[in-house]
């Protein structure tokens, strides 16, 4: 008779672990206030850009990054590279301090460079971030300051 409670306990289904809610993967949970406005203006204008490129013996490379705002509020940048200007396009994140998206040189080149970038504001006069070319998984560092 003492074996029946143990046997019944063994036959009861165990709770399903897969249905337990896990913590969120990140991001803002409670957006009770509106995002900051007009901070994407911090990206606009001309920047002295420095970037790493292990394929170029001249690097760290230097140039100018020019950023403008499109009519829809997204940003567009021009990054002169050997062989042609790369155009950066993308939107600014919710907090208005990160600009990210694709970049590409014109398709008229024999081997245009294409990839993705990320830039983050660092105070009023600085940007830091990374970029990587399509087909690679290694990001390269770049940073910019106001001239």
Describe the overall structure.
This protein is mainly β and 147 residues long. It has one domain (40-145): Calycin beta-barrel core domain (Lipocalin, Beta Barrel), CATH 2.40.128.20. Helix content is 6%, strand content 41%. The chain has one helix at residues 3-11, and strands at 45-51, 61-69, 75-81, 84-92, 98-104, 114-121, 126-133, 140-145. Strands 1-2-3-4-5-6-7-8 form an eight-stranded antiparallel barrel. The model is unreliable at 29-34 (pLDDT under 50).
Key words describing this protein structure:
147 residues, mainly beta, Lipocalin, 8 strands, globular
For the sheet with most strands, the description reads: 8 strands, antiparallel, barrel
CATH class categorisation: Mainly Beta
Mean pLDDT score, rounded? 77
CATH architect. name: Beta Barrel
What percent of residues are in strands? 35-45%
Count of alpha and pi helical runs: 1
Can you count the beta strands? 8
Given as residue ranges, the uncertain stretches (5+ residues, pLDDT < 50) are 29-34
Radius of gyration: 25 Å
Biggest sheet, spatial arrangement of strands: 1-2-3-4-5-6-7-8
Q: Can you tell me the number of structural domains?
A: 1
> Which structural class should the secondary elements be placed in?
mainly beta
The named CATH superfamily: Calycin beta-barrel core domain
Overall shape: it is globular
């Amino acid at each position: 008779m003492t074996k029946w409670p143990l046997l019944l306990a063994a036959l009861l289904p165990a709770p399903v672990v897969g249905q337990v809610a896990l913590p969120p993967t990140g991001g803002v949970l409670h957006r009770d206030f509106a995002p900051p406005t007009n901070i994407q203006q911090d990206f606009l204008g001309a920047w002295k850009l420095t970037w790493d490129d292990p394929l170029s013996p001249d690097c760290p490379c230097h140039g100018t990054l020019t950023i403008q705002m499109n009519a829809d509020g997204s940003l567009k940048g021009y990054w002169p590279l050997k062989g042609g200007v790369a155009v950066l396009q993308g939107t600014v994140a919710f907090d208005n301090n990160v600009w990210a998206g694709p970049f590409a040189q014109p398709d008229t080149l024999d081997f245009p460079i294409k990839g993705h970038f990320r830039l983050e504001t660092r105070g009023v006069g600085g940007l830091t971030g990374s970029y990587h070319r399509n087909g690679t998984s290694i990001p390269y560092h770049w940073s910019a300051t106001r001239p």
